[in-house]
Amino acid sequence: METPQPVQIHAEEQSGSAVSDPILQAALQELEFPKVIEQIAALCSSELGREYIRALAPREDLPWLHAEHETLQEMVELLEQGLPFGLGSIPDVRRSLRKSTVENALLLPTELVDIRELLVLCRSVRQELIRLEQFPHLRQLGQQLYQNRLLERHINDTVDETGAVRDTASRELARIREEMRAVAARLRSRLRTILRRFVEDELAMDEFITQREGRFVVPIRVEHKHHIPGIIHGVSQTGATVFLEPAEIFELNNELALLADAERREIERILRVLTAEVGSCAHELLHSEQLLGYLDSLLARARYAQRYGGRRPVIGESEEIVVRDIVHPLLAAAHGRAAVVPLSLEFRAGLRGHLISGPNAGGKTVALKSVGLNLLLAFSGIFPLGECRTPLLRIMTAIGDQQSIEQNLSTFSWQIVRLREILQRSTPQSLVLVDEICAGTDPSEGAALAMAILEELLRSGARFIVTTHQSSLKVFALRRAEVQNDSLAFDQERLLPTYRFLPGVPGNSYAFVIARNFGLPEAVVQRAQELLGGQHRALEEGIAAVEQLRAQLEQAYAEAERERQRAEELRRQIEQQLQELRLYRAQLRARAREEFQELLAQARQLIESTLRELREQQRPAEQVRREFAEAIEQLQQTLRPEPEELPQEQPAAGSPLSVGSWVRMEGMQSVGTIVELDTERGIAVVDFGGLKLRSPVEKLQAAEPPPRPARSAAEYVRADAPHSLDLRGRRVAEALQALERFLNQALQAGAERVRIVHGTGTGALRQALHEFLRRHPAVAEFRNAEPDEGGAGTTIVVLR
Length: 800
Description:
By secondary structure, the chain is an alpha/beta fold. Helix content is 50%, strand content 16%.
């Protein structure tokens, strides 16, 4: 990713100057761009952010657009993750900062409070943004924010939150205010004494002290104002009282006034020094304030995109125009995005024009405006409400009823004047949007004019989207490969528009259908159809037939899609069940191997211990055989499975299923038992040896219980050859189990030598049997049989 460049705040973005191009200005108004801008501005938390939003307009600066969209995408993602900072109401101190740069200027304490708030906000937002390693553009913005902790502390030490200058602003100010408090205390004490005397002499009405013109005074009855030496500083609203400064406190009042003047001069000195300090970094603070306003605008645009489904556009990567699933921004704001029918439209290679037709109030103008307005948003640094891939375009419009009495222009005249201006400025980078082209005049002449204008637009290389009711224009589009007929779906049964965009299908105005539905006499409607003319009527009937066929195809497609989804769901369920069965089979195999190895180890241990005892005691052979047989019987008792409970009588195939029934699931060979049965929903849970699967009842078939496992190895020994075991055709695991049982029986019978028939084959079975015999404690030796004993397919085993 390229390193983002520092954000440049352009003058036009700060001032909110209007667009100068009259054609673009008209497009913005006709597509209601300012209304959308105001909706986004309302999402800002500061006036600075709102100013930035209101200044946004389409730009042809591709690098700016790419950087703006990348930064906005980062803000959208950050908003989704959770915003780590808040902007609140950004203080607007632009005037104060500019004033601070004037020599000997003085900022008011309240202005300094606002500047301190700006410094604190810059510092806190910067700290959060510079941590965002995954969002380089936002991080770059944070790095540009100015911070000055020293100035922040100086303002805080000088002015409190209410804007009052603190006593601690300077030592001199602290000394002056301390003297003022002392003088004021003496004044109040002296005045209280004087006032009590005046009240006793009935010269004053109340015992309270106040100030007038910065000097302490007492209230005296107006009739006694000449009885007390002093200066009158005012009269009450009723005129019954005068506020008099007694002569005996002149000196203290003068002293307090001198101190107040000294306080004022010291405060001015302090504020001028602090103002100069602000002025030294006013440029940095101004830029930071603009950056905060820009961040506020980014947040508003991100909230707008998040609320209404805005998506980052792709601009300048292809000459094709593609808009998919876009909605009109004003309709999305009024009704919610989900309630608005989305629109998809493309200018594929070679296609230069779309001609949208259909009934009145069917959504043609909304479709026209949806495309234009979303593209204007994309070119202004705002995410359109849907997918947009487009080159840089100049959008020109002729939409609405703009008749002018002052200029003596009818609607038709106004449109012609606008189309003249558009034709003069059309280029391959133009997208022209015209609503009801050349309407409001003679239909045949208007249609001819419209076709000539569209031909001229095609010659200029411009692309256009035009709405019309003119049948001749639909024919024009059918004959031109670079122009496509489009329409919006109309429900003929309910006589209501559905607002679904139908690319490639010309629309019917349904004038006769609507007229008949609204009660116009049938004779009048039929006469109108007769007067229409055969060619025109054939065209409209053809369009209606195409529309009906399209509706049928859409219904068939929808049904096929539902069937496909059902088949896909069934396939997924079967795959899941097969996967579960494979896993269960693997688990069974692993568990069987573990149990077999454990039992084999126990058998070896028992045999070895028995043989060791027999060797140590050197007992007679017959006794040895008898005791060894007893040991083998003990081992068999250990290995013999517990008696199984006989299953309950199962229903025959075709009988009703119930809990405990043996069943086979469709597509499986294994049988299991039903452990749960929901007859209302037709769902059963079947236990396949510990693996429980859920299945519809109709996919289950009643089955016979599986055969009980064999209890003896006798079946593996031929009746005519009790000292021989035929293992041909068996799997390795099965053959080893049979061999183990066979050797135990041979030892019990006192056999000294036995024959194992395994065949030649691939040699895998022979190798596994030899490895087993090599480790078996009861085997003294074994060898391949001689030709007369069975040859390579037989092994001779000598027992201990």
